[in-house]
Amino acid sequence: MNAPLYNLEILRLAADIPHHERLEHSGGTSEKRSPVCGSRVTVDIDVDDEGRVVQLGMLVRACALGQASAALLGRAILGRTPTEIAAARDALTAWLAGERDTPPDWPGIDLFTPALPHRGRHASIRLAFEAAADAAAQAAEARV
Fold it and tell me: pLDDT digit string (tens) for 35-44?
């Protein structure tokens, strides 16, 4: 039996996005939009002198899957480097595309296993990670 695409945990995460306000000052900002569904995520990031994320702000206008993905990102991004975030983004993209069998090493991301056959939903799931990777790279570059 297939697991439901929208389950209770996804709906709980969608309703509880951490860091859900934009930062007044950030080292990097990126907005990503899904042309398929119109979902949009804006991410502001600031990093410390070692390049680790110390502040995150997000504006999430997305479906429940995009909101849940942003919540998972927000719960585990502090202390990570731009390289780690980019690796998570790339692994998520490959997993959703069927290019790897295992989900990325990011807490809770396997929650999206039921979405694997639903290619039209993948863009929304990737948005927060794509925006965060870009914003983190900008923030790190601004520190140099």
Answer: 888 899 999 9
CA 100/CA 140 separation, integer angstroms: 29
Supply 59's token pair: 């504006």
Measured CA to CA, the distance from residue 25 to residue 63 in angstroms comes to: 27
Tokens of 115: 């979405």
Sign (positive or negative) of CA dihedral 98, 61, 40, 30: negative
User: What amino acid occupies position 104?
Assistant: P
DSSP string, 76-110: H-TT--HHHHHHHHHHHHHHHTTS-SS--SSTTGG
Does the pTM surpass 0.90? The reply is yes
Question: pLDDT tens digits for 64-113?
Answer: 999 999 999 999 999 999 999 999 999 999 999 999 999 999 999 999 99
| Cα 136 to Cα 39: distance, rounded to the nearest angstrom | 21
CB atoms near residue 57 (< 10 Å) = 20
Instruction: Please give the structure tokens belonging to residue 48.
Output: 């410390």
Q: Which residue's entry shows tokens 């942003």?
A: 70
